[in-house]
Amino acid sequence: MSYEYARIPFTKGVNVVCGPNGAGKSTILIGISVALGQSSTERSKRLSDLIRRGKDEARVTLILDNSPRDGRRPVQKIRKDQIFLTRGLRRDGKYWFELENSAANKVEVNRLLAKFEVDPDNMLIIMQQNMVEQFTVLSTQEKLRMVEAAVGFESYRKNVVMAQKKLSRILSQGDSVGKLLESAEQTLSYWREQYDRYQQKKQLRLKRRFLERELAWAEVLKRERVVAKLKEHIQEHQNKLTKIERETGTTNGQISLLQSRLQTSKTALRNLFEDCLVLERERAKLELAALTADYAIKEIKSWASNHHREMENVLDNIKSLETVLGEKTNPIDLTTQLAEIKASYDSLQDAWTQRFNIRNASLQKSAETSKEQLTILSNQISGIKARTDSVDMEIEAATNQILDNKISLALLNYQRESLTRTMKRLEKELQQAIVDLNEYVKRAESVGQRLVPMKNTMDILEELRVTDGHLAALADVSEDIERMYESYSKLYLELKEKACLVAQNREKALEEVNTRMDAWRKIIHKLLDQVNTKYRKILAQAYAVGEVKLTSEVDIEDAGLEIFVGFKGGNPVPLNSYTQSGGERSTATITFLLALQQHVHSPFRAVDEYDVHMDPKNREIIANLIVSSVTGLDTQYLAITPSQLTFTGKDVHLITVQNVEGVSLIKEVT
Question: Is the pTM above the cut of 0.70?
Answer without folding.
Answer: no
